[in-house]
User: Which sequence fits this backbone?
């Protein structure tokens, strides 16, 4: 979780300095969903994610330096600079494709699930998307097909609700989706669906473990809606960092601007987890601070690597868009 | 059957309209067999109670959108059967000058805005009409017809969501005849009643016997009242059956003969006729006369169509772009 | 050598492909549209039940499924049936499948085939008569295959499935009944190799799909007037064999391109541009296109016949080129 948090915060800094351009989307505030959820998977399972993919890739083990390089459009990036933030892939980790089109990955995830069922290889597919995806027609089409064919796919919907009004708001009726709760949509297709608090790492892990078990037993698709509260730095089109993360924030938010304090105090999943660990005597504050320090150094080194990685040669644009023909 | 709630004079008129649709469709079928009509053709024989039941409660200025099986919808909304037949036969005197054909009927003068060849294609369009109607504040309603096959399409869901969010004055009428082209609904989805989808988006929904004219009318009456009062969209699912194949020429081997026999017993026209007879509102002779009058109108439409000239080929590019009204 | 109907060759291809590679799955239609022979597909359905899926009317959904399945190692063939229905699946075909290999820096392959029937079918009207291949040619990352004979459909379908790239297989219902020779041990036909369907010396007539057959008929008639037309069939639009066409133009100095996509930005337009750019010095007359007029396809039979690349229009164009 520290890796994700510091990765994302560094990205904001890099964008601010003009090191890369274009839109990008942070996973800050959702770490307690991605990290424990992906820990429940096997090495050869498939994952699909959206434009908000950095956290998922890192949680699964992608190297921060290669992800930074990809976002910066450098040749050492995960996609050799051809994809950028939205389209970063890591096939070795199960990420075959990321789409920048809302709900673009949902039908694709039924495809890999269809393939693994046909090939009988026991691999399951996790489809990671946000609440907005449910507004696209592609979602119900995919749910219908997944339920019809009993496909081994876990639909994990990260509902990151509204900024700044506490956890309860994540569960609120949306102005762009008439169905409420969101779990009614998969349930209409008899897909078992549940809502959980996405800020509770332990609960996420337990819930996803169980869902994954069911899928592996052949029970067909499962749907989990994990609710979080949107990070105050996401309030505008261009992410900002209200306060750089530090373990001390878990106990003292006085350095945080007032309008963001409540979020750090009660809805930041990373800080919640830190407090849990300390209160359960599973770790000491100093140990956590030391861990964080290590992560910060590693991230700094990764940034360095990326910034110094060369850009691909312009001619590369004309290469590598067709796989060679066997004939 | 709730005929008691209806005025028998009204019912006789409704039956007359159902007969007109039936006779029209049978005539189209005969012309198709003679190759006087070509292309893709989808008949609504057996689904007359839905068209007439649903549309008989609308105002003249209400709008209707159909699907590929919409001759009956157009007729029930008041389309001229001569111009309709001519269009299906590709003649210049048809509603669209022969450019649209069976699946693309437009009879704007009577409020039948358009049919479509794309499954569910008019559902988002109907939302637009409802949106505009809401702005105009004259209580105008939009009705859109589609089949059970449209229930699995993404745009259908997107439309339910938007109609509900914006509380649009639209009535979704789903003709669930159990088959999407050549496949039974159960092979396409685990959901048995499309009304369920509407409820997921918070839209009030009813499922009725689509072959019972009076049941359809009773449900539509409630729907029309609510919708006109500005209470948002309504979904009406009518269970029915198409007596022919998906398209003319479809041998429909995927359907069991026993199923067809079952549905023949529920023939919507026979049921209304039976009810009128039991009420002594019409005699057998009068019923037979009604049928033959309908057939005569259909025959006249056929003759009109076949005697009409073909559209001029060198004018084919004339109606592609509208000319601005300056 | 045997003489087969096009639809027979096509079924043979599907059977051989399905028998030869377990990774091939068939999704959606019968690959025969409304042909009276489509019941033959039931034989495949019985033989390969586990690998044939008949989805709901959800083109976006099942084209996405096919794309995802291809990413995971299957080799699905999707039958969209009526070509215009690809518009329902456009985001998955043009924005996901086409881009995946390139934007992943070459890591993710998408060996999916999207099969469709294009063009004027006799009463299909505007929404069932589309020829989307011109629009799809403008999407980098898609291969486009467009056969016109029994031998070609068999050989090209095999190559389409063997290809690791997303491939659009453009067929035409009016080809299904034509007959032609198919070798006993036919081989897959490589992409990017055009076929000279008729040798001639006076005019090069480039045609695609069913229009190849119309072109051949026009050529027969013109031969009676002593005009020898060379009919060249590209067989694949992506990759495209310009070399064969230029050799022909070098011989004849005149070229007509006949194709069923609409004229503006159509297939003929692109071919014309390529010939003009590289073969200008070989030409003795302007390049002429015989395309479907820029009009939504009208329903009435006379109107539909009028707007297409008919035999009459092709013959007029040939004569004009020689005038």
Assistant:
């Amino acid at each position: 979780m520290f890796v994700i948090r510091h990765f994302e915060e560094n990205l904001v800094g890099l964008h601010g300095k003009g090191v890369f351009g274009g839109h990008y989307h942070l996973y800050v505030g959702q770490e307690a969903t991605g990290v424990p959820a992906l820990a429940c998977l096997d090495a050869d399972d498939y994952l699909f994610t959206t434009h908000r993919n950095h956290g998922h890739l890192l949680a699964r083990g992608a190297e921060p330096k290669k992800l930074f390089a990809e976002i910066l459009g450098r040749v050492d990036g995960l996609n050799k600079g051809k994809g950028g933030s939205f389209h970063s892939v890591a096939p070795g980790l199960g990420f075959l494709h990321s789409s920048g089109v809302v709900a673009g990955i949902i039908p694709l995830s039924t495809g890999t699930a269809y393939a693994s069922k046909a090939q009988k290889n026991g691999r399951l597919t996790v489809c990671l998307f946000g609440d907005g995806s449910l507004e696209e027609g592609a979602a119900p089409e995919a749910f219908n097909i997944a339920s019809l064919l009993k496909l081994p796919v876990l639909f994990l919907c990260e509902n990151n609700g509204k900024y700044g009004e506490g956890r309860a708001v994540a569960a609120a009726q949306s102005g762009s989706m008439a169905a409420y709760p969101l779990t009614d949509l998969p349930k209409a297709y008899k897909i078992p669906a549940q809502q959980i608090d996405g800020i509770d790492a332990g609960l996420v892990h337990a819930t996803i473990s169980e869902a994954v078990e069911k899928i592996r037993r052949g029970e067909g698709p499962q749907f989990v809606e994990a609710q979080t509260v949107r990070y105050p730095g996401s309030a505008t089109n261009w992410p900002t960092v209200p306060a750089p993360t530090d373990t001390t924030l878990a106990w003292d938010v006085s350095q945080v601007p007032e309008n963001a304090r409540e979020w750090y105090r009660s809805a930041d999943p990373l800080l919640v987890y830190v407090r849990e660990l300390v209160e359960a005597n599973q770790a000491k504050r100093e140990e956590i601070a030391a861990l964080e320090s290590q992560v910060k150094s590693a991230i700094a080194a990764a940034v360095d690597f990326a910034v110094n990685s060369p850009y691909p040669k312009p001619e590369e644009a004309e290469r590598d868009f067709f796989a060679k023909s066997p004939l | 059957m709730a005929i008691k709630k209806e005025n028998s004079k009204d019912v006789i008129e409704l039956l007359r309209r159902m007969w007109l649709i039936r006779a029209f469709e049978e005539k189209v079928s005969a012309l198709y067999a003679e190759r006087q009509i070509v292309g893709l053709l989808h008949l609504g024989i057996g689904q007359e109670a839905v068209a007439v039941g649903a549309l008989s409660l609308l105002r003249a200025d209400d709008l209707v959108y159909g699907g590929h099986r919409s001759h009956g919808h157009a007729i029930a909304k008041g389309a001229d059967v001569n111009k309709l037949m001519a269009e299906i036969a590709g003649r210049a005197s048809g509603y669209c000058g022969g450019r649209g054909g069976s699946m693309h009927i437009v009879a704007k003068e009577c409020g039948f805005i358009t049919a479509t060849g794309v499954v569910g294609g008019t559902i988002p369009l109907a939302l637009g009409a409802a949106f505009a109607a809401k702005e105009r504040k004259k209580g105008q309603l939009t009705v859109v017809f589609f089949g059970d096959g449209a229930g699995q399409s993404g745009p259908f869901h997107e439309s339910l969501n938007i109609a509900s969010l914006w509380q649009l004055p639209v009535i979704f009428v789903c003709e669930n005849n159990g088959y999407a082209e050549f496949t039974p609904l159960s092979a396409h989805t685990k959901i048995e009643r499309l009304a369920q989808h509407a409820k997921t988006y918070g839209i009030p929904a009813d499922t009725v016997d689509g072959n019972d004219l009076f049941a359809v009318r009773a449900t539509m009456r409630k729907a029309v009242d609510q919708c006109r009062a500005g209470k948002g969209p309504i979904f009406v699912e009518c269970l029915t059956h198409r007596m022919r194949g998906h398209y003319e020429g479809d041998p429909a081997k995927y359907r069991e003969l026993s199923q067809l026999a079952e549905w023949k017993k529920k023939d919507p026209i026979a049921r209304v006729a039976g009810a009128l007879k039991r009420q002594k509102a019409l005699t057998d002779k009068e019923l037979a006369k009604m049928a033959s009058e309908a057939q005569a109108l259909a025959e006249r439409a056929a003759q009109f169509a076949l005697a009409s000239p073909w559209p001029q080929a060198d004018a084919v590019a004339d109606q592609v772009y509208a000319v601005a009204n300056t | 050598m045997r003489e087969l109907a096009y639809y027979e060759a096509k079924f043979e291809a599907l059977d051989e492909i399905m028998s030869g590679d377990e990774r091939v799955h068939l999704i959606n239609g019968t690959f025969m549209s409304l042909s009276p022979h489509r019941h033959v597909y039931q034989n495949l359905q019985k033989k390969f039940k586990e690998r044939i899926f008949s989805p709901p009317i959800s083109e976006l959904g099942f084209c996405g499924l096919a794309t995802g399945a291809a990413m995971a190692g299957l080799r699905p063939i999707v039958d969209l049936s009526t070509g215009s229905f690809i518009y329902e699946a456009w985001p998955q075909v043009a924005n996901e499948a086409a881009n995946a290999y390139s934007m992943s820096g070459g890591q993710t392959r998408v060996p999916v085939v999207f099969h469709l029937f294009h063009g004027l079918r006799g009463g299909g009207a505007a929404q069932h008569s589309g020829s989307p291949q011109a629009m799809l040619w403008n999407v980098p990352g898609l291969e486009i295959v467009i056969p016109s004979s029994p031998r070609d459909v068999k050989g090209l379908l095999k190559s389409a499935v063997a290809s690791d790239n997303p491939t659009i297989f453009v067929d035409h219902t009016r080809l299904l009944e034509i007959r032609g020779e198919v070798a006993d041990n036919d081989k897959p036909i490589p992409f990017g190799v055009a076929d000279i369907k008729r040798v001639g010396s006076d005019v090069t007539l480039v045609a695609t799909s069913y229009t190849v057959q119309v072109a051949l008929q026009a050529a027969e008639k013109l031969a009676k007037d002593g005009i020898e037309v060379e009919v060249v069939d590209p067989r694949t639009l992506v990759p495209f064999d310009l070399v064969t066409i230029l050799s022909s133009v070098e011989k004849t100095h005149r070229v007509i391109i006949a194709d069923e996509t609409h004229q503006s930005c159509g297939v003929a337009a692109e071919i014309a541009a390529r010939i003009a750019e590289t073969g200008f010095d070989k030409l003795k007359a302007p390049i002429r296109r015989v395309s479907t007029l820029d009009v939504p396809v009208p329903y009435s039979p006379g109107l539909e016949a009028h707007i297409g690349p008919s035999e009459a229009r092709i013959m007029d164009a040939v004569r004009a080129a020689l005038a």
